[in-house]
């Protein structure tokens, strides 16, 4: 017997969850507070484990058709001296496939197209959820995929875990400049990253203690190695996105509630972006949750949710913890110690 599920949130985690549930034969509807899908063009790094989850969800080939491999990257000083290599080659040797990068709009389009092909999934935009209890009474399952400020989490898990700032502002964007200088440049209390995203374009991100305007951001990277100043000088600031880096603290004791509600993605374990694992963990959550539900069925939904929590919670929270600690290490002002430790790694 199939069940009825409501997914709150139409981001990567919510759409992937809806695909998995629909493939399991469930009736699925999605509510999204925004009036349309957010299509800003940052790049997601997708680890081989998350790629395998996309395979199991039935969208792996479509993902590979739009993604680009990420094989070589370095950590550098502001002067451009390489300190260490990111472990991309080791990841590829171990997994048998490389880390991949994909533009966020492309991934969302792939997931939306798959939902459309599966059929019978209702996506309602511009709907702000206010009464989670009423929704839970109407459906067998409610999935909170509504981000770091999750309404579902607040309603069913309390306010003990909440977004917490870390005193750093991030800026992200896509430059119409292609460069082969990929990786991250670490300075004193700030860093700048560049990755491929598609031919002729470069995904970039920057983190600084504070910068309210584009000119202030540029000032933090004056004199840094090329192409960092060029990217900031030649790209349109109106396309840049600024946000305060936050994480969910303290960690939740469970991702599920009363055999009725489950959290995925940032709603469950929002993390700083330093490890580049936010989209990966959301995909892994969605696939693990829907795989467990398919295995147990609606009559044993409680067992399915507990199996999901056992598989994903500690793993996702370890990634979140590691990402937060990496941020502390990257953003330290004791650069001599940090750089000395980095030089011990293969360059």
UniProtKB/TrEMBL annotation:
Residue ranges annotated for the FAD-binding domain, each copy included: 5-319
Annotated Gene3D superfamilies: FAD/NAD(P)-binding domain
Keywords carried by this UniProt record: Monooxygenase, Oxidoreductase
Domain of life: Bacteria
Pfam family, one: FAD_binding_3
This protein's name: FAD-dependent oxidoreductase
Species: Microtetraspora malaysiensis
